[in-house]
Amino acid sequence: MDNTPLAASPLTRAVLEIDEYLSGLGWDRPTMLFALVDTARLRAEEPELAERLGADGPVDGTDDAGQGSLTPVEQEELPTGVPLDEFLATIAWPEAVSGCAMAVERLMLPPSAEAAMPDDLEPAALERWVADHPERQEVRLTVAVLRDGQRESAVRLREKDAATEVLTGPDLVPGLAEALAATLEE
């Protein structure tokens, strides 16, 4: 994407590219899954696919660790009605996939609101309680992992919906990162 901010690592660039792509689609989107493939390998092994994905132009050089560019490849829509953890347990990626990423929209509360959360709510009642809370924040979480263990996340608040307001870091969404990493285990 042309508007993707510069980033230090190929994984961070890939996460920000996915975030920018989703930003163009708007909010209230279903959870989306992406394969992350080495761009040079994609060009060599699947040149037509590389062209369709826009990965046929100049590639950024390698980073300081010698890693090349990654191309996100959107996967089919996730099944509805299946809990995310159960769905992820069914995924196994082929060797050609360097990593994977997922983008989910969620409601988040500040720690002060979480302290006031009733303890005995069933999941559906808890969802309603969070959705009705005046301090809730709508967020898009984009999390990516590589086979070598690298992780990166991007968090975008709906109320601050700008590329310059996206927070990135490897440990922002550790539970989802762990679940995605498990899909890459052989």
Characterization of the model:
By secondary structure, this protein is α+β, with helices and mostly antiparallel strands. It is 32% helix and 23% strand. The chain has helices spanning 10-25, 39-45, 47-52, 84-88, 111-115, 123-132, 174-183, and strands at residues 32-38, 70-74, 99-108, 137-146, 151-157, 167-169. Strands 2-1-3-4-5-6 form a six-stranded antiparallel beta sheet. The longest helix is centred in the N-terminal third of the chain and has 16 residues, at 10-25.
Concise account of the structure shown:
This protein is an alpha+beta fold and 186 residues long. It is built from 7 helices and 6 strands; from the N terminus they run H-E-H-H-E-H-E-H-H-E-E-E-H.
Indicate how many domains the architecture comprises. Answer: 1
- Residue-averaged pLDDT: 86
Strand order of the largest sheet: 2-1-3-4-5-6
| Order of secondary-structure elements | HEHHEHEHHEEEH
The amount of helix comes to 25-40%
Give the number of DSSP strands: 6
Record keyword descriptors for this entry.
186 residues; globular; six-stranded antiparallel β-sheet; 6 strands; alpha+beta; single chain
Tell me the layout of helices and strands.
Blueprint lengths: L9 H16 L6 E7 H7 L1 H6 L17 E5 L9 H5 L10 E10 L2 H5 L7 H10 L4 E10 L4 E7 L9 E3 L4 H10 L3
Antiparallel strand pairs: 1-2, 1-3, 3-4, 4-5, 5-6
